[in-house]
Amino acid sequence: MAKPISIEVWNPSGKYRVVSTKSMPGTRWIRLLADNDCRLEICTETKTILSVDDILALIGDRCDVQLTEEWGEVLFSALKRAGGTAFSNMAVGYNNVDVEAANRNGIAVGNTPGVLTETTAELAASLSLAAARRIVEADQFMRAGLYDGWLPHLFVGNLLKGQTVGVIGAGRIGSAYARMMFLKANGEQPVTWKRAATMEDVLREADVISLHPVLDKTTYHLINPERLAIMKKEAVLVNASRGPVIDEVALVEHLKANPMFRVGLDVFEDEPYMKPGLADMKNAVVVPHIASASKWTREGMATLAALNVLGKIKGYPVWGNPNLVEPFLKEDATPPAACPSIVNAKQLGL
């Protein structure tokens, strides 16, 4: 290994070896694995992104399963040689995983849908409001001791009442975001909605645009210079999906040229880094990939990731509906004898 790595071991005499390259929240996921004859090795380097060489060293010559992040052919083939059978991604998205490489090596790939829908939608709604009302700018201004008293032009932002909200990628999270943004007070006119003919129609008409697509070849740089140019000059753009959905270099230039245009970003094209200039933009609200960061959600994600692994060890079937995962998350109940979500189950004949 390039550097010594701190490992915490649970149930050292366990029959099955499970390696987690990140320390995950909660303890239920640990108990579930340890109580089912698993030796659990947890990397406690909380501020370190492990290299391929580090992970290869962790796998060693025997590893039944693996919980981690960025994986491709090199790591999947190493896991197969070590006798590994499963990889579980602590996320709903798995664009960071070469699923075809996993298929070639017979490795089941788990993910954690269903548990983070509302939490991610809440963060997207929060970014929409924070960007529209310039909350971060105002907070920094106040902390710097610059407030001398109320002024008519001080941090004037956008009123969202009665505005048009565009949702691109109206799946589980996008739909939950829409429900939050479309709440109405008593006595107001009912909210109306329509499905746009094209994405360009959404971008032209909407005052707030929230991005919720999956990341693939068709959505890479979905928001590019041409599409930024057709948006309203005072629009609010929010991204809590995947960073490369936005051409970040083009976004920085657009923010510079249009100071009333605002963005709220939870994800970035080259995480953990931002493109040059983005951090200097006062019309950008940026947070460090925390859309799923509620205590209940993150502990639930850890549980689902562990149960994907445990299910593969035990030879359990795959759960019929990965969006209905509540039975796996009941703290004091025995979870179903199933893998919550295996994305390549069909390809592997599971």
CATH topology of the largest domain: Rossmann fold
Stretches where pLDDT falls below 50 for ≥5 residues? none
**Secondary-structure arrangement, i.e. CATH architecture of the largest domain:** 3-Layer(aba) Sandwich
What overall form do the CA principal axes indicate?
Answer: elongated
The number of domains is 2
CATH class category name of the largest domain: Alpha Beta
Number of helical runs? Answer: 12
Q: Give me the strand/helix succession.
A: EEHEHEHEHEHHEHHEHEHEEHH
Strands across the major sheet, in which order? Answer: 1-3-2-4-5-6
SS class? alpha/beta
Please report the distance between the alpha carbons of the first and last residues: 35 Å
Largest sheet: 6 strands, mixed
CATH superfamily of the largest domain: NAD(P)-binding Rossmann-like Domain
- Taking all Cα atoms into account, the compactness measure Rg is 22 Å
Oligomerization status of the protein chains: single chain
Compute the average pLDDT: 91
Strand content: 5-15%
